[in-house]
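SAMPLE LOG
Freezer: B-3
Tube label: C17
Construct: single chain, 83 aa
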Amino acid sequence: MIALGAAVVFYAASRRWGVLMRHQLVARAVFRMGVYFFMNWVVVPLSALGAKTYPPAVNIWVMLGHIPFVGWPIAMITRRAAR
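STRUCTURE (predicted):
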C-alpha cells in the first residue's frame, strides 16, 4: 500500500510538473529519498508500533537500496502509464 501510495503521488506530481518526466534519473532518486525520509521521520514515529528509526549511518545504505529497487520502478511504471 505504501509503494502504491508513493506511485500515485509521483504520477500526480509528474502530471503537474513535467520536469519529473524529462529528468527521470534525478527525479526518481529525489522522490524516493523524500518518501523514505517521510516514512522514517514522520509515519514510523507517529505509528502505534513505537518503532525506532534507523541511525543516520544505516539511513544512507537503506536509501541507496530504495532508489533503484523502489523509486526507479515506480517512476518507470508511471512514465509508461502517462503516455
